[in-house]
């Protein structure tokens, strides 16, 4: 296969530049939520944000809808329900009185649902990753430009507290020229992937099926999104090409075999070509910078996001613990231990306005509060007619790393071009993740939490606390 013909080529010109796009202001944002797994985390945040009306929810599984109803018990939200069929989501997308649809279903469904929702005149916020193929990434770009509807991928890791501080450091020139950055999603999914749905596993064993049939970095955006934002990718620079290598499978195949010996349910998962357990991609940008993205959802190593940014004048590194900064003076200032006082001073100096305002109220929300900060920012932008913090070009470029790394793996780690989804506009596009609230907005109030929200047993939040217990809640 010639990758230039089949993977990254797009000859059409940009129809309309969605970078910096401002949609008409919405006093009230009328929301529909599709998929009640991850969707629950978003509802928990959305019911605490002024100007949100959740008017529709959908899950093909009525049991999931029943569980999710609890969210609305002590609120004014009274959503329409769409359920009991794998096509019920179309009804939600067609509902006239909706402005914005959150798509929180398994990844293979994202592109079809997002495209349909935009064509029904809705803005879309879609969970990570936005699409599984490069062609679908292009289709998302083309459709957002044609319909002039926002498409934002919900990259919440850019709203982690340390990550926000390090993005602000980039905006304020702390690193000098950024030379290299690295990010990862290294957290074991083995146990959860093998759980059946009734044991709180993934619906239809969808992740296990993807691991059994794909190569490459299947979850690139949590590691890549925050560093791409710090490096102004798609606004002044862009990712040009990558190389990728992954080893073999050491864990999923043996686990399937072990389980199938006791339980015939697992027989269909035996003997599959599971993806390699550790994957590493190196990306070079047009401006001559490098990025490393790592993916290990297999070994039982504690959650490790790396999130390192290295420049001519300074550096920052999140994982492994403790987080740290360097001022170009050949030493680290650590959150715990050596240099703690200077770490705290730097953290405070570079804390962006959004984190200053929302740090306390976002406690108790998923992923160290990042879910709440991101959703508040989205709603605030829509209510004030501001550009979305991440645009369709970010979604396409970051998501394309999954199929492109698969192509590289299948071709002895050969280099592969990364498409320019902006079609040249990266040279003029301005920053749009306004974490200091300098371009307007910032006037959306935070409401008291719902009782159900606070009582919710959030497995992801528990996992986050377990793996990052030392990091959250201080400074
Ligand atoms: N950003 C994050 O931190 C984060 C965390 C977890 C999951 N995610 C993302 O969220 C998405 C969902 O993952 P999950 O862990 O919640 O999976 P899940 O399997 O737990 O939940 C998916 C839900 O979608 C429903 N669904 C499946 N097909 C459907 C259809 N045709 N119509 C309506 N509903 C349908 C299922 O019944 C299920 O309730 C994925 O894209 C995943 O990558 C993101």
Number of extended strands: 15
CATH-derived architecture of the largest domain: 2-Layer Sandwich
Terminal Cα span: 52 Å
Strand percentage: 15-25%
Structural summary, described in words:
With 475 residues, this protein is of the alpha/beta class. The protein folds into two domains: 3-155 and 432-453, 3-Layer(aba) Sandwich (Rossmann fold); 158-355 and 394-426, Dihydrodipicolinate Reductase, domain 2. The protein has helices spanning 3-6, 39-46, 62-68, 89-94, 110-119, 134-147, 161-171, 190-194, 206-211, 221-230, 252-262, 340-349, 353-358, 370-383, 392-399, 401-410, 451-455, 459-468; strands spanning 29-34, 52-59, 80-83, 100-103, 123-126, 151-153, 178-186, 239-246, 279-285, 290-296, 308-311, 315-317, 324-326, 333-334, 416-417. The strands form two sheets. Strands 14-13-12-11-7-10-9-8-15 form a nine-stranded mixed beta sheet. A hairpin with a 6-residue loop joins β12 (315-317) and β13. α6 (134-147) packs antiparallel against α15 and α7 (161-171) packs parallel to α10. The longest helix is centred in the N-terminal third of the chain and has 14 residues, at 134-147. It is globular, with a radius of gyration of 21 Å. The chain starts with a helix and ends in a 7-residue tail after the last helix. Mean pLDDT is 93; it is low at 1-6 and 470-475. It binds nicotinamide-adenine-dinucleotide. Nicotinamide-adenine-dinucleotide (NAD) binds at residues 34-38, 58-61, 64, 86, 89, 104-107, 109, 127-128, 154, 156, 202-203, 206, 367, 460. Nicotinamide-adenine-dinucleotide binds at residues 34-38, 58-61, 64, 86, 89, 104-107, 109, 127-128, 154, 156, 202-203, 206, 367, 460.
């Amino acid at each position: 296969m010639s990758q230039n013909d089949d993977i990254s080529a797009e000859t059409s010109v940009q129809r309309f530049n969605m970078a910096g796009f401002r949609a008409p202001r919405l006093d009230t944002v009328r929301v529909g939520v599709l998929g009640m797994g991850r969707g629950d985390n978003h509802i928990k945040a959305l019911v605490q944000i002024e100007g949100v009306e959740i008017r529709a929810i959908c899950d093909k599984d009525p049991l999931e809808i029943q569980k999710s109803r609890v969210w609305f018990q002590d609120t004014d939200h009274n959503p329409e329900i769409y359920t009991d069929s794998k096509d019920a989501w179309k009804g939600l997308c067609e509902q006239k009185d909706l402005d914005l649809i959150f798509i929180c279903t398994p990844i293979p469904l994202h592109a079809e649902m997002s495209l349909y929702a935009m064509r029904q005149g809705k803005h879309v916020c879609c969970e990570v990753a936005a699409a599984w193929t490069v062609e679908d990434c292009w289709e998302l770009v083309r459709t957002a430009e044609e319909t002039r509807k926002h498409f934002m991928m919900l990259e919440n890791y850019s709203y982690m507290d340390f990550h926000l501080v390090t993005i602000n450091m980039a905006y304020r020139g702390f690193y000098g020229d950024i030379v290299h950055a690295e990010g990862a999603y290294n957290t074991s999914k083995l146990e959860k992937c093998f759980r059946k749905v009734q044991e709180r596993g993934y619906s239809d064993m969808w992740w296990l099926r993807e691991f059994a049939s794909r190569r490459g970095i299947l979850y690139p955006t949590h590691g890549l999104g925050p560093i791409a934002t710090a490096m102004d990718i798609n606004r002044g620079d862009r990712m040009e090409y990558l190389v990728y290598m992954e080893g073999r499978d050491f864990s999923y195949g043996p686990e399937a075999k072990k389980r199938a010996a006791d339980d015939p349910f697992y027989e269909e998962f035996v003997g599959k070509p599971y993806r390699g357990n550790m994957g590493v991609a190196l990306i070079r940008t047009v401006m001559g910078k490098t990025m490393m993205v790592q993916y290990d959802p297999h070994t039982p190593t504690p959650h490790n996001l790396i999130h390192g940014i290295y420049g001519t004048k300074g550096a920052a590194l999140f994982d492994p613990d403790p987080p740290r900064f360097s001022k170009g003076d050949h030493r680290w200032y650590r959150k715990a231990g050596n240099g703690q006082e200077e770490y705290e001073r730097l953290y405070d100096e570079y804390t962006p306005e959004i984190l200053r305002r929302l740090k306390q109220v976002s406690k108790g929300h998923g992923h160290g509060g990042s879910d709440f900060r991101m959703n508040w920012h989205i709603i605030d932008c829509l209510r004030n007619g501001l550009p979305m913090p991440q645009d369709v070009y970010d979604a396409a470029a970051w998501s394309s790393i999954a199929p492109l790394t698969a192509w590289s793996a299948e071709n002895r780690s050969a280099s592969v071009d990364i498409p320019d989804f902006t079609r040249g506009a990266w040279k003029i596009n301005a920053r749009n993740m306004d974490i200091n609230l300098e371009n307007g907005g910032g006037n959306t109030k935070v409401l008291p939490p719902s009782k159900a929200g606070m009582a919710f047993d959030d497995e992801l939040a528990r996992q986050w606390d377990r793996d990052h217990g030392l990091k959250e809640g201080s400074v």
